[in-house]
Write the C-alpha coordinates for this entry.
Amino acid sequence: MKHAVMTAGAIAVSATGALAGGVERSAQSVGILFEDGNRAEFTFTFASPEVSGSLGGGALQSGDMAPGYFGYAFAYKQKLGERLDFALIIDQPIGADVDYPTGTGYPLAGTTATLSSQAITGLLKYRFDNNVSVYGGLRAEAVRGVVSIPFLGGYTLETNRDLALGYVVGAGWERPDIMARVALTYNSAIEHSLDSTEFGADTGGFDTTVPQSVNLEFQTGISRQAQLLLFGSVRWVDWTEFEIAPPAYLGVVGTPLVSYQSDRVTYNLGLGKRFNENWSGAVTLGYEPSNGDITGNLGPVDGFASIGVGATYTQGNMEITAGVRYVEIGDATTTLGADFSGNSAVAAGLNLAMTF
Protein backbone atom coordinates (compact mmCIF):
# COMPACT_ATOMS: atom_id res chain seq x y z
CA MET A 1 0.00 0.00 0.00
CA LYS A 2 2.69 2.49 1.01
CA HIS A 3 4.46 2.49 -2.36
CA ALA A 4 1.36 3.14 -4.45
CA VAL A 5 -0.40 5.62 -2.16
CA MET A 6 2.71 7.72 -1.58
CA THR A 7 3.51 7.74 -5.29
CA ALA A 8 -0.02 8.91 -6.10
CA GLY A 9 0.30 11.69 -3.54
CA ALA A 10 3.81 12.66 -4.57
CA ILE A 11 2.95 13.02 -8.25
CA ALA A 12 0.00 15.29 -7.41
CA VAL A 13 2.31 17.43 -5.26
CA SER A 14 5.22 17.48 -7.73
CA ALA A 15 2.90 18.69 -10.46
CA THR A 16 2.75 22.01 -8.58
CA GLY A 17 6.34 22.42 -7.44
CA ALA A 18 6.90 24.73 -10.37
CA LEU A 19 4.40 27.24 -8.93
CA ALA A 20 5.88 27.49 -5.44
CA GLY A 21 7.78 30.51 -4.12
CA GLY A 22 10.68 32.19 -5.87
CA VAL A 23 11.82 30.29 -8.94
CA GLU A 24 11.34 26.86 -7.38
CA ARG A 25 10.80 23.87 -9.66
CA SER A 26 11.50 20.97 -7.26
CA ALA A 27 10.54 20.32 -3.64
CA GLN A 28 13.74 18.22 -3.26
CA SER A 29 12.05 15.29 -1.52
CA VAL A 30 14.23 12.46 -0.14
CA GLY A 31 11.31 10.02 0.04
CA ILE A 32 13.04 7.57 -2.31
CA LEU A 33 15.58 6.84 0.46
CA PHE A 34 12.87 5.30 2.63
CA GLU A 35 11.45 2.92 0.04
CA ASP A 36 11.83 -0.83 0.62
CA GLY A 37 14.37 -2.76 -1.42
CA ASN A 38 15.60 -1.29 -4.70
CA ARG A 39 13.59 1.18 -6.78
CA ALA A 40 13.85 3.38 -9.87
CA GLU A 41 11.46 6.21 -10.80
CA PHE A 42 11.01 8.48 -13.82
CA THR A 43 8.77 11.53 -13.40
CA PHE A 44 7.50 13.89 -16.10
CA THR A 45 5.48 17.03 -15.39
CA PHE A 46 3.76 19.76 -17.36
CA ALA A 47 2.47 23.07 -16.00
CA SER A 48 0.11 25.40 -17.84
CA PRO A 49 -0.18 28.70 -15.95
CA GLU A 50 -2.26 31.67 -17.01
CA VAL A 51 -0.73 34.81 -15.52
CA SER A 52 -1.73 38.28 -16.72
CA GLY A 53 -2.06 41.76 -15.27
CA SER A 54 -2.78 45.36 -16.10
CA LEU A 55 -1.63 48.95 -15.58
CA GLY A 56 -3.62 52.14 -15.28
CA GLY A 57 -6.78 50.55 -13.97
CA GLY A 58 -6.90 48.10 -16.85
CA ALA A 59 -5.88 50.50 -19.63
CA LEU A 60 -2.78 48.48 -20.48
CA GLN A 61 -3.09 44.70 -20.46
CA SER A 62 0.02 42.52 -20.19
CA GLY A 63 -1.47 39.43 -21.79
CA ASP A 64 -0.52 35.95 -20.56
CA MET A 65 3.21 36.18 -19.74
CA ALA A 66 3.72 32.65 -18.35
CA PRO A 67 4.05 29.97 -21.06
CA GLY A 68 3.56 26.30 -20.29
CA TYR A 69 6.62 24.15 -19.70
CA PHE A 70 7.75 20.59 -19.09
CA GLY A 71 9.86 19.15 -16.26
CA TYR A 72 11.50 15.85 -15.46
CA ALA A 73 13.11 13.95 -12.59
CA PHE A 74 14.79 10.60 -12.01
CA ALA A 75 15.39 8.80 -8.72
CA TYR A 76 17.15 5.53 -8.00
CA LYS A 77 17.52 3.76 -4.65
CA GLN A 78 19.83 0.81 -3.99
CA LYS A 79 19.92 -1.23 -0.79
CA LEU A 80 23.60 -1.70 0.12
CA GLY A 81 23.07 -3.79 3.25
CA GLU A 82 20.80 -4.30 6.25
CA ARG A 83 21.43 -0.75 7.48
CA LEU A 84 22.87 1.17 4.54
CA ASP A 85 21.05 2.59 1.48
CA PHE A 86 22.11 4.73 -1.47
CA ALA A 87 20.02 7.08 -3.61
CA LEU A 88 20.70 9.07 -6.77
CA ILE A 89 18.31 11.91 -7.66
CA ILE A 90 18.29 14.00 -10.85
CA ASP A 91 15.97 17.01 -10.96
CA GLN A 92 15.57 20.68 -11.88
CA PRO A 93 15.73 22.69 -8.63
CA ILE A 94 14.97 26.14 -10.07
CA GLY A 95 13.63 27.55 -13.31
CA ALA A 96 11.59 30.29 -14.95
CA ASP A 97 9.90 30.88 -18.30
CA VAL A 98 8.66 34.37 -19.17
CA ASP A 99 7.17 35.55 -22.48
CA TYR A 100 5.22 38.83 -22.51
CA PRO A 101 3.14 39.08 -25.72
CA THR A 102 4.07 41.77 -28.24
CA GLY A 103 1.70 44.43 -29.56
CA THR A 104 -0.13 45.03 -26.28
CA GLY A 105 1.27 48.47 -25.44
CA TYR A 106 2.29 47.12 -22.04
CA PRO A 107 5.79 48.39 -21.07
CA LEU A 108 7.23 44.86 -20.89
CA ALA A 109 5.73 43.70 -24.20
CA GLY A 110 8.16 41.38 -25.95
CA THR A 111 10.16 40.65 -22.79
CA THR A 112 11.39 37.07 -22.53
CA ALA A 113 13.41 35.22 -19.90
CA THR A 114 14.53 31.67 -19.31
CA LEU A 115 16.25 30.30 -16.22
CA SER A 116 17.22 26.63 -16.36
CA SER A 117 18.92 24.24 -13.97
CA GLN A 118 19.86 20.60 -13.56
CA ALA A 119 21.06 18.87 -10.40
CA ILE A 120 22.43 15.47 -9.46
CA THR A 121 22.27 14.46 -5.79
CA GLY A 122 23.93 11.41 -4.26
CA LEU A 123 22.77 10.31 -0.79
CA LEU A 124 23.67 7.64 1.77
CA LYS A 125 21.35 6.64 4.63
CA TYR A 126 22.31 4.65 7.73
CA ARG A 127 19.60 3.10 9.92
CA PHE A 128 20.05 2.48 13.66
CA ASP A 129 18.29 -0.14 15.83
CA ASN A 130 15.82 2.39 17.31
CA ASN A 131 14.11 3.17 13.97
CA VAL A 132 16.17 6.35 13.62
CA SER A 133 18.26 6.99 10.53
CA VAL A 134 20.69 9.66 9.38
CA TYR A 135 21.51 10.57 5.81
CA GLY A 136 23.52 13.00 3.76
CA GLY A 137 25.35 13.59 0.53
CA LEU A 138 26.44 16.01 -2.17
CA ARG A 139 24.52 17.92 -4.82
CA ALA A 140 26.04 19.11 -8.11
CA GLU A 141 23.94 21.87 -9.68
CA ALA A 142 24.20 23.71 -13.01
CA VAL A 143 22.33 26.94 -13.82
CA ARG A 144 22.03 29.25 -16.84
CA GLY A 145 19.95 32.30 -17.75
CA VAL A 146 18.88 34.25 -20.86
CA VAL A 147 16.88 37.53 -20.74
CA SER A 148 15.62 40.07 -23.28
CA ILE A 149 13.88 43.34 -22.27
CA PRO A 150 13.20 45.45 -25.38
CA PHE A 151 11.82 48.55 -23.61
CA LEU A 152 15.04 48.89 -21.56
CA GLY A 153 17.09 50.07 -24.51
CA GLY A 154 17.09 46.60 -26.05
CA TYR A 155 18.65 45.03 -22.95
CA THR A 156 19.83 41.43 -23.28
CA LEU A 157 21.55 39.06 -20.87
CA GLU A 158 23.11 35.69 -21.50
CA THR A 159 25.14 33.72 -18.96
CA ASN A 160 27.29 30.64 -19.15
CA ARG A 161 26.20 27.39 -17.55
CA ASP A 162 27.86 27.35 -14.13
CA LEU A 163 28.36 24.16 -12.10
CA ALA A 164 28.67 24.32 -8.31
CA LEU A 165 28.41 21.99 -5.31
CA GLY A 166 26.22 21.89 -2.23
CA TYR A 167 25.31 19.31 0.39
CA VAL A 168 22.32 17.61 2.00
CA VAL A 169 21.99 16.32 5.58
CA GLY A 170 19.02 14.92 7.44
CA ALA A 171 17.53 12.52 9.95
CA GLY A 172 14.46 10.34 9.95
CA TRP A 173 12.33 8.08 12.13
CA GLU A 174 10.05 5.31 10.88
CA ARG A 175 7.66 2.62 12.11
CA PRO A 176 6.95 0.31 9.15
CA ASP A 177 4.26 -1.62 11.05
CA ILE A 178 2.02 1.49 11.16
CA MET A 179 3.44 3.06 7.99
CA ALA A 180 4.71 6.02 10.05
CA ARG A 181 7.68 8.14 9.01
CA VAL A 182 9.14 11.58 9.70
CA ALA A 183 12.14 13.00 7.83
CA LEU A 184 13.84 16.37 8.39
CA THR A 185 16.22 17.49 5.63
CA TYR A 186 18.54 20.47 5.25
CA ASN A 187 19.63 21.51 1.74
CA SER A 188 22.60 23.85 1.74
CA ALA A 189 22.81 27.05 -0.28
CA ILE A 190 24.79 26.74 -3.52
CA GLU A 191 26.93 29.66 -4.69
CA HIS A 192 27.23 30.23 -8.45
CA SER A 193 29.64 32.56 -10.28
CA LEU A 194 28.17 33.41 -13.68
CA ASP A 195 29.88 35.05 -16.66
CA SER A 196 27.57 37.64 -18.22
CA THR A 197 27.07 39.09 -21.68
CA GLU A 198 24.79 42.16 -21.61
CA PHE A 199 23.77 44.34 -24.55
CA GLY A 200 25.93 41.94 -26.57
CA ALA A 201 29.13 42.79 -24.65
CA ASP A 202 31.11 41.00 -21.96
CA THR A 203 30.32 42.65 -18.61
CA GLY A 204 32.42 40.41 -16.40
CA GLY A 205 29.89 38.47 -14.41
CA PHE A 206 28.07 38.26 -11.11
CA ASP A 207 27.40 35.84 -8.25
CA THR A 208 24.06 34.35 -7.31
CA THR A 209 22.99 31.99 -4.54
CA VAL A 210 20.44 29.21 -4.90
CA PRO A 211 19.10 29.41 -1.34
CA GLN A 212 19.21 26.99 1.55
CA SER A 213 16.03 25.14 2.48
CA VAL A 214 14.56 22.85 5.13
CA ASN A 215 12.02 20.08 4.41
CA LEU A 216 9.84 18.25 6.92
CA GLU A 217 8.12 15.21 5.36
CA PHE A 218 5.76 12.94 7.29
CA GLN A 219 3.25 10.12 6.89
CA THR A 220 1.26 7.72 9.05
CA GLY A 221 -1.35 5.04 8.55
CA ILE A 222 -4.65 6.12 10.10
CA SER A 223 -6.82 3.10 9.33
CA ARG A 224 -5.44 -0.30 8.42
CA GLN A 225 -8.96 -1.63 7.80
CA ALA A 226 -9.84 1.22 5.45
CA GLN A 227 -6.30 1.27 3.99
CA LEU A 228 -5.85 5.00 4.58
CA LEU A 229 -2.58 6.94 4.77
CA LEU A 230 -2.15 10.55 5.90
CA PHE A 231 0.92 12.35 4.55
CA GLY A 232 2.30 15.84 4.08
CA SER A 233 5.23 18.20 4.07
CA VAL A 234 6.37 21.63 5.21
CA ARG A 235 9.13 23.37 3.24
CA TRP A 236 10.99 26.59 4.09
CA VAL A 237 13.20 28.31 1.52
CA ASP A 238 15.48 31.27 2.28
CA TRP A 239 14.51 33.26 -0.81
CA THR A 240 15.76 36.57 0.58
CA GLU A 241 19.33 35.41 -0.14
CA PHE A 242 18.56 34.89 -3.85
CA GLU A 243 19.05 37.64 -6.40
CA ILE A 244 20.07 38.04 -10.02
CA ALA A 245 22.03 41.30 -10.33
CA PRO A 246 23.98 41.53 -13.62
CA PRO A 247 26.40 44.50 -13.54
CA ALA A 248 25.11 46.46 -16.57
CA TYR A 249 21.46 46.01 -15.56
CA LEU A 250 22.29 47.08 -12.01
CA GLY A 251 24.09 50.15 -13.35
CA VAL A 252 21.12 51.24 -15.49
CA VAL A 253 18.19 50.37 -13.21
CA GLY A 254 19.84 50.49 -9.79
CA THR A 255 18.12 47.36 -8.46
CA PRO A 256 18.57 43.61 -9.14
CA LEU A 257 16.81 41.99 -12.08
CA VAL A 258 15.31 39.43 -9.65
CA SER A 259 15.14 39.54 -5.84
CA TYR A 260 12.71 38.64 -3.05
CA GLN A 261 11.75 40.50 0.11
CA SER A 262 10.53 37.48 2.10
CA ASP A 263 11.26 33.81 2.60
CA ARG A 264 8.58 31.25 1.73
CA VAL A 265 6.94 28.38 3.60
CA THR A 266 4.94 25.85 1.56
CA TYR A 267 2.50 23.34 3.08
CA ASN A 268 1.15 20.13 1.55
CA LEU A 269 -1.29 17.66 3.12
CA GLY A 270 -2.74 14.55 1.54
CA LEU A 271 -4.91 11.51 2.16
CA GLY A 272 -4.27 8.30 0.27
CA LYS A 273 -6.27 5.09 -0.02
CA ARG A 274 -5.63 1.65 -1.44
CA PHE A 275 -8.74 0.39 -3.24
CA ASN A 276 -7.49 -3.09 -4.18
CA GLU A 277 -4.29 -4.91 -5.14
CA ASN A 278 -3.95 -2.86 -8.32
CA TRP A 279 -5.39 0.58 -7.66
CA SER A 280 -4.54 3.33 -5.17
CA GLY A 281 -5.33 7.02 -5.10
CA ALA A 282 -4.69 10.22 -3.20
CA VAL A 283 -6.06 13.73 -2.73
CA THR A 284 -3.69 16.57 -1.82
CA LEU A 285 -4.05 20.15 -0.67
CA GLY A 286 -1.31 22.74 -1.01
CA TYR A 287 -0.92 26.22 0.43
CA GLU A 288 1.72 28.92 0.33
CA PRO A 289 0.74 32.13 2.16
CA SER A 290 0.86 35.45 0.32
CA ASN A 291 3.35 37.87 1.85
CA GLY A 292 2.01 41.07 0.31
CA ASP A 293 5.44 42.00 -1.05
CA ILE A 294 5.95 44.03 -4.21
CA THR A 295 7.04 41.45 -6.79
CA GLY A 296 9.40 41.59 -9.75
CA ASN A 297 8.04 41.84 -13.28
CA LEU A 298 9.45 38.43 -14.27
CA GLY A 299 7.53 36.60 -11.52
CA PRO A 300 4.31 38.46 -10.62
CA VAL A 301 2.85 35.87 -8.23
CA ASP A 302 2.44 35.83 -4.45
CA GLY A 303 1.57 32.48 -2.86
CA PHE A 304 -1.00 29.92 -3.96
CA ALA A 305 -3.68 27.45 -2.89
CA SER A 306 -4.15 24.14 -4.70
CA ILE A 307 -5.96 20.84 -4.82
CA GLY A 308 -4.69 17.73 -6.57
CA VAL A 309 -5.64 14.13 -7.25
CA GLY A 310 -3.48 11.18 -8.23
CA ALA A 311 -4.01 7.51 -9.03
CA THR A 312 -1.59 4.59 -9.22
CA TYR A 313 -1.96 1.31 -11.08
CA THR A 314 0.29 -1.49 -9.80
CA GLN A 315 1.06 -4.68 -11.69
CA GLY A 316 3.78 -6.91 -10.26
CA ASN A 317 6.86 -4.79 -9.65
CA MET A 318 5.70 -1.95 -11.93
CA GLU A 319 3.74 1.19 -11.02
CA ILE A 320 2.19 3.81 -13.28
CA THR A 321 0.94 6.97 -11.62
CA ALA A 322 -0.82 10.02 -13.05
CA GLY A 323 -1.81 13.17 -11.21
CA VAL A 324 -3.32 16.57 -11.87
CA ARG A 325 -3.55 19.70 -9.77
CA TYR A 326 -5.46 22.97 -9.98
CA VAL A 327 -3.78 26.05 -8.55
CA GLU A 328 -5.20 29.45 -7.58
CA ILE A 329 -2.24 31.83 -7.84
CA GLY A 330 -1.99 34.62 -5.28
CA ASP A 331 -2.59 38.21 -6.43
CA ALA A 332 0.49 40.42 -6.78
CA THR A 333 1.53 44.01 -7.45
CA THR A 334 4.75 44.50 -9.44
CA THR A 335 7.45 47.17 -9.25
CA LEU A 336 5.76 48.87 -12.24
CA GLY A 337 2.55 49.15 -10.20
CA ALA A 338 0.76 46.57 -12.34
CA ASP A 339 -1.99 44.50 -10.76
CA PHE A 340 -1.83 40.74 -11.40
CA SER A 341 -4.97 39.07 -10.04
CA GLY A 342 -7.38 36.22 -10.74
CA ASN A 343 -4.64 33.99 -12.15
CA SER A 344 -4.49 30.20 -12.05
CA ALA A 345 -2.68 27.14 -13.36
CA VAL A 346 -3.22 23.50 -14.14
CA ALA A 347 -0.34 21.05 -13.71
CA ALA A 348 -0.11 17.35 -14.49
CA GLY A 349 2.44 14.63 -13.88
CA LEU A 350 3.28 11.06 -14.84
CA ASN A 351 5.47 8.70 -12.81
CA LEU A 352 6.85 5.34 -13.94
CA ALA A 353 8.38 3.21 -11.17
CA MET A 354 9.93 -0.23 -10.86
CA THR A 355 10.91 -2.11 -7.71
CA PHE A 356 13.38 -4.98 -7.73
Q: What stands out?
A: The domain at 2-355 is CATH 2.40.160.60 (Porin). The first strand starts at residue 39 and ends at 50. The chain has one domain: 2-355. The mean pLDDT is 94.
